[in-house]
Design goal:
The protein is 43% helix and 18% strand. It is α/β, with parallel strands linked by helices. Strand 2, helix 2 and strand 3 form a beta-alpha-beta unit. Helix 1 packs across helix 7 and helix 10 packs across helix 11. It is elongated and about 75 Å long. It starts with a strand and ends in a 5-residue tail after the last helix.
């Protein structure tokens, strides 16, 4: 098992750090009392590898329990559990600004000056900072830059290289645009196989419908232009730290044209090595409901 202890100054970015680690596949617990760490570690060990990456946020919110951290870490060492300490910090000026923007009180100075609380916290965390494996100063970091640093430290090779998950989704406009769409493309301008009697009962997953839709120049031109757009967008999404991209392709009923185009885009993205999945949301809606125009 691998344990990451996330700690540091209040307001330095521990919440963003734990969210990033969760996206990297870590089982995350925020503000676990340090006296419970040994029992928690035992419970994770008993999963027989089902939980093998754990991240714990431990900070001064734990009050007197925080002082027991080192005895719990001694338990890790005695049991042979590998652990690392990730320490986050920032300048006093930036921490004060963040507190004022969020209108939160500092846990060590609930009724006093924020600066007093920060100074007290720095002193209490001095020893754990000295033992940290990684120290990240978030003073000048954006959320995206912080996530990138943590991914570089704790992410697997595949997670670092293919951290954007792309979902290609076909749908029917008469059933509504998917609410989680990032990009929506309307292919109702293409000739509709629904009006071809021998094609009506089939879907874009069938060769007869696929060949019909792909035989039009408008189709191939559209796919080429969309591919060119995605070649531009995807690297920039990755650069900005985006972790999921949902590309929705819609026709009237979500059975013929949208399925054909979605399959074509999915295959092109897959051939380029992207982490991509496909879903035909409404492909059977009209069949199941005895609908008319698809």
């Amino acid at each position: 098992m691998k344990f990451v202890i996330v700690t540091g100054l209040s307001g330095a970015g521990k919440t963003q750090a734990i969210r990033c680690l969760e996206d990297l596949g870590y089982f995350c617990v925020d503000n676990l009392p340090t006296t419970l760490i040994p029992k928690f570690a035992e419970a994770c060990f008993q999963t027989e590898g089902k939980i093998d990456k754990i991240a714990l946020v431990i900070d001064i919110r734990g009050g007197k329990f925080f002082d027991d951290l080192f005895s719990s870490l001694s338990y890790f060492k005695a049991e042979g559990y590998h652990y690392e300490i990730l320490f986050l910090e920032a300048s006093d000026e930036v921490l004060i600004k963040r507190y004022k923007e969020s209108r939160r009180k500092h846990p060590l100075a609930p009724e006093g000056r924020i600066l007093t609380g920060i100074a007290s916290e720095r002193e209490r965390l001095k020893e754990v900072r000295e033992k940290a494996n990684h120290i990240i100063d978030t003073t000048k970091l954006s959320t995206r830059e912080l996530r990138q640093k943590i991914t570089n430290i704790y992410g697997d090779k595949d997670q670092i290289e293919n951290k954007l998950m792309i979902n290609v989704l076909s749908f029917g406009f008469k059933y509504g645009i998917p609410l989680d769409s990032d990009l929506v493309f309307d292919v109702r301008f293409l000739p509709n196989p629904y009006y071809i009697p021998e094609l009506k009962q089939y879907s874009g997953n069938d060769s007869s419908v696929r060949d019909y839709v792909m035989d039009f120049k408008e189709t191939t031109d559209f796919i080429d232009k969309l591919e060119d757009m995605l070649n531009f967008l995807i690297p920039n999404y990755i650069k900005e730290g985006k972790r999921q991209l949902i590309i929705s392709i819609g026709c009237t009923g979500g059975r013929h044209r949208s399925v054909t185009i979605a399959n074509a885009i999915y295959q092109k993205l897959r051939d380029k090595g992207h982490n991509v999945a496909i879903d035909h949301r409404d492909i059977n809606e009209d069949v199941n409901k005895g609908g008319t125009k698809i």
